[in-house]
Amino acid sequence: MNVVIIEDEFFSAEKLRILLQQIDPSLEVMAVLPSVEKAVSWFSTHPEPDLIFSDIQLEDQESFALFERLAIDAPIIYTTAYDQYAIQAFKQNSIDYLLKPINPEELRAALKKYEYLSQRFVSKNPETPKSDPKERFMVRKGNGFTVVKAQDIAYFKSDQKLSFLITFDGQKLLVDATLEELTEQVDARRFNRISRNRLVCIDSIQKIHPHFNGRLKLELIPADEEEVYVSRDRVQAFKEWINS
Asked: Quick one: three-class SS letters along 37-65?
């Protein structure tokens, strides 16, 4: 496996290189790149690696700028001392997000995850496409009904056997459908069923925080009345959806 490390701290890069080769002696580090400009130059003249390990705050700017400037398909494992970049990272080609100092077991798990996902996507047969997602929903408003465009919906939630949609401008409107039915009707690229009672749009997710017992805690726009969590059994699918 060929790897590139994007890291501006020499000792952090060296420690990561040593850990990687301890885990997999056949692994080859093709380059250690300390800045976005040097990374742009390198990727413009070299083939892509199998996997990229990237810090976020580099000596010239954030590494996100690299992936905005170049179309790089290689998966990325972010390594950083800060957790506030998680949602932005998962919107890139990220398959994992490791906090410094790097824990060897977490690094080993991240590499296993890369191998698992690589094998899965190579061997997976094309799925039968679903019918086109709904572009609008008729909902109750006052004594009548109104129509809400799918692009205006931040998330759906169920409460006491009723389903509601919440728009980006903060309206909470009753929907005559179950969350199971809504999950089948929306665009799966934009909406994800994170728990038994929440179906969220990717554009509504402001921040992602690790939480107790393997769950993830989300900050949504607009803010929900209750704390919002990704169920533990849905975390892996959620991460794959964010990264798709």
From this structure: HHHHHHHHHCCCCCEEEECCECCCCECHH
Position 128 in a domain: no
Nearest to 149 by CA among 163, 160, 139: 139
Q: Torsion-angle region of residue 50: left (phi > 0), alpha (psi -120 to 50) or beta?
A: alpha
With b meaning 16 or more CB within 10 Å and e meaning fewer, what string describes 25-55?
A: eebebbebbbbbbbbeebbeeeeebebbbbb
Nearest-angstrom CA–CA distance, 32 and 162: 54
Range of the domain at 14: 2-123
> By the 8 A CB rule, do 38 and 63 touch?
no
Domain boundary among 91, 123, 155: 123
pLDDT in tens, 129-156: 456 899 999 998 888 889 999 999 999 9
Q: How far is it between the farthest Cα atoms of the chain?
A: 68
Do residues 143 and 36 both lie within one domain? no
In this predicted model, what pLDDT tens digit does every residue of 65-108 receive, in sequence order? 998 888 788 889 999 887 766 666 566 668 888 989 999 999 99
Interatomic CA distance for residues 34 and 60, integer angstroms: 9
- Rounded Cα distance, 59 and 63, in Å: 10
Whether the predicted model's global pTM rises above the 0.70 cut: no
Same domain? 53 vs 108? yes
